[in-house]
Design brief:
heterodimer; A: 11 strands; about 0% helix; B: about 120 residues; 4-stranded antiparallel sheet; about 50% strand
Chain lengths: ~110, ~120
Amino acid sequence: GESVGLHLPTLSVQEGDNSIINCAYSNSASDYFIWYKQESGKGPQFIIDIRSNMDKRQGQRVTVLLNKTVKHLSLQIAATQPGDSAVYFCAERPPNDYKLSFGAGTTVTVRA
Amino acid sequence: NAGVTQTPKFQVLKTGQSMTLQCAQDMNHNSMYWYRQDPGMGLRLIYYSASEGTTDKGEVPNGYNVSRLNKREFSLRLESAAPSQTSVYFCASSERGRAYGANVLTFGAGSRLTVL
């Protein structure tokens, strides 16, 4: 079975609000966690990653938080824009392996 | 840079027909992958190639074969297509297939396959 999963399959957000997308993982030994964004009709695109020895990492308008105690990962998007409408996947890289394991994805819809 | 290019983008097959999905990357990446994406199931790894000359099974390899033709190209073949293989297929590549770093994947745009 999958070791990475997302709490909610869909998320509706008002334009301008902040979005929080959650992900639970089961392999406590995973070294890296990665977020991907997939727009309609396109392949997934890398957003940001975080190593297991970090709690937080920031990018452009995005922040990833890692809580290893409860094996939880989240992606926060500041000031959500219509272009943020997409499916968001979290993925983990297990130890001693380079292949990624993906969750089922969360579909984010931005309301105007 | 084109990145990862997949062909065809769309294909309709009848049960029992065969076909090959082509993938090429121009980033000089060592590792290449084939995933399938089904509703509610995320991305599942079919086959991968850590480096030129090697291929290995992923999570769902049954019914598929692959060829790593050279460093740039990695093809996926369905010998006898079944309706259960109706899916969107993604090819991806990464710089190196080793257990360090995040191993960020670059994906192609996908190939939508329908088997009737």
